Amino acid sequence: MNEALPDLAEALVYLLTALKEVKAEISATVEQILDNFIKLLPVFMQKQLLRTA
Fold it and tell me: What is the top-level taxon of the source organism (predicted)?
């Protein structure tokens, strides 16, 4: 069992690193989508949304 621990630790490090990268990519994508959506709204709505943010 102890022999497998380094392999398991390496696999977990890989998984956590990959998930952090995916989270960053998803966050950036969602932010871009919301920015694009806000730009399509009428100006008065944009101002209200940006004021409350």
Answer: Bacteria
What is d(CA 20, CA 10) in angstroms, rounded to the nearest whole number?
15
What residues have CB less than 8 Å from 18, skipping those under 6 apart?
none
Neighbours of 34 (CB within 10 A): 11
pTM higher than the cut 0.70 = no
Q: Residue 29 in contact with residue 37, Cβ under 8 Å?
A: no
Cα–Cα–Cα angle for 29, 25, 36, nearest 5°? 10
